[in-house]
Amino acid sequence: MSDNERLDYFYMEKALNGSLSYDNETVPLSREQIVIREAQPSDAPAMARINVATWRDSYKKFLPRQLMAELSCSQKQSEIEDFFASWEENQAVALVVENKSGEMMAFIMAGKNHRQDLAYMGEIYNLHVAPAFQSQGIGCCLVYKVSQVFRQRNWNTMMVWALAENPSRRFYEKLGGRFIAQYIDEYRGFTAPVIAYAWNELPICFRNLCRSNPMYESKNPK
């Protein structure tokens, strides 16, 4: 492991030494109390529940009412199952985060880039952190780990699409993602503008992100 990789692991541990507020209870969050593991097809129902919860929490202000009304766990579960069914074709990677009780907190799905006109090797397809566990560094760790997997495959570049109207897309800017493209996406008969971010060097530098995380800064004043 290089010196830079050691530093990244150090800062990732720092980012996970915070606490979570959940139903008025403080749940310690540390490396010892969460598990990041490879997702399995049997995880699809729990992943779908998180997917629906994040859509309802984050997207209801700018996506069509009809689309949100039609949103269901069974619909999202079917989409996730399709992802697992095409695992080899997409050279996929999927990770989930669980707490010590086995409750799923977040997941990420990624694989080869589907847009041949954009010269990036890897693509993040989906990243969702359950609303109760957001803004604590979990999503950062998942993106970092996927970037490591891609680099181990000699995939040196990565991209992701995000809804243009979603202010949370700036999460990717904080990770060093660079704006590269935009277009109008179609989903279940509805359209919405989307923006692509990309990284030209992997793995991403996790320590820089930790320094921009409010939780990290409050515990490590400069």
Structure write-up:
The chain has helices at residues 3-15, 44-58, 65-70, 73-85, 87-90, 138-152, 170-174, 206-212, 214-219; strands spanning 18-22, 25-29, 34-38, 93-99, 104-112, 122-129, 158-163, 178-187, 190-199. The chain contains nine helices and nine strands. It is globular, with a radius of gyration of 17 Å. It is 38% helix and 29% strand. By secondary structure, it is of the alpha+beta class. Strand 1 and strand 2 form a beta hairpin. It starts with a helix and ends with a helix. Helix 1 (3-15) packs parallel to helix 8 (206-212) and helix 2 crosses helix 4.
Fold topology:
Layout: H1 3-15, E1 18-22, E2 25-29, E3 34-38, H2 44-58, H3 65-70, H4 73-85, H5 87-90, E4 93-99, E5 104-112, E6 122-129, H6 138-152, E7 158-163, H7 170-174, E8 178-187, E9 190-199, H8 206-212, H9 214-219
Parallel strand pairs: 6-7
Antiparallel strand pairs: 1-2, 3-4, 4-5, 5-6, 7-9, 8-9
